[in-house]
Design a protein that fits this description.
This protein is mostly beta strands. The chain has a domain at 1-67: Histone H3 K4-specific methyltransferase SET7/9 N-terminal domain (Single Sheet), CATH 2.20.110.10. It has two helices and 16 strands. The protein has a 16-stranded antiparallel β-sheet. Strand 12 and strand 13 form a beta hairpin. The radius of gyration is 25 Å and the shape is elongated.
């Protein structure tokens, strides 16, 4: 059913209201029979889109309200989340940043509502990847992610005035079983190397001070050993891979 403006050829053109055979409804602008311009599309399942259309497809600025209570507000292209936008998930988490073909892709910030922790860095096709910073209430991790997991050299920076340097090592699989079944995913393990006073983080890497220099700073050798032991288990969990439905465990 359609009620609204038409052009000389009888096509829907201008402002109109339509009820589709599947029960969805649309009210907004038309051009030559197609949804084009500003409009509101209401789905039978309770979802709705308010924004711009181009030739029957979401294109431009728009907000989509999903049935589970989540919401996306930002750029669209060819019916896909594409450009820059903010997604608020049903559990309260938020992602603000770049999108490509419906996926988080580029630079963005993901905030975990339950813990207040934030991932700030790169994304590739929906997964955390590239230079990043994982920020918690009393400490942060700086390094790189690959396929949603921390990888290679990095450091934990603590509010008490020290840093723990090290790297994430990927555990090797038993090659004898690879031909029989796919290898299991193994979380990378944090391998600490030294604790130092605070150092500057530069885009081209850094040269942490020696342990001798660090002993003159914020922690003593004994304190450093205790901090390493106590924090090692905590940070392994803190930088564990996460997705949009999972939460970073508390680091209290």
């Amino acid at each position: 059913e359609y009620e609204g403006d038409r052009n000389a050829e009888g096509e829907r053109h201008g402002h109109g209201k339509a009820r589709l055979p599947n029960g969805d409804t649309y009210e907004g602008e038309y051009e030559h029979g197609l949804r084009s311009g500003q409009g509101t599309y209401r789905f039978k399942n309770g979802a709705r889109y308010i924004g711009e259309y181009l030739q029957n497809k979401k294109h431009g600025k728009g907000t989509f309200f999903y049935p589970d209570g989540s919401k996306y507000e930002g750029d669209w292209m060819n019916d896909q989340r594409h450009g820059y936008g903010e997604y608020t998930y049903a559990n309260g988490d938020t992602y603000t940043g770049e999108w490509f073909n419906h996926n988080r892709h580029g630079q963005g910030t993901y905030v975990y509502k339950e813990t207040g922790s934030k991932y700030v860095g790169g994304w590739v096709h929906g997964s955390q990847e590239g230079e990043m910073e994982l920020i918690h209430l009393s400490h942060r991790f700086k390094g790189k992610f690959l396929n949603g997991n921390p990888v290679g050299p990095g450091k934990y920076v603590f509010d008490i005035g020290c840093e723990q340097h090290g790297e994430y090592i990927q555990s090797e699989q038993d090659k004898g079983e690879e031909d029989e079944e796919p290898p299991l995913l193994v979380e990378p393990k944090w391998k600490p190397s030294q604790i130092t006073k605070l150092t500057l983080w530069t885009p081209h890497g850094e040269n942490p001070p020696s342990l001798g220099e660090a002993s003159l700073g914020a922690v003593t050798t004994a304190e450093a050993m205790e901090e390493k032991e106590d924090s090692e288990a905590v940070e392994e969990k803190a930088a564990a891979p996460v997705d949009e439905e999972e939460k970073i465990p508390s680091t209290e």
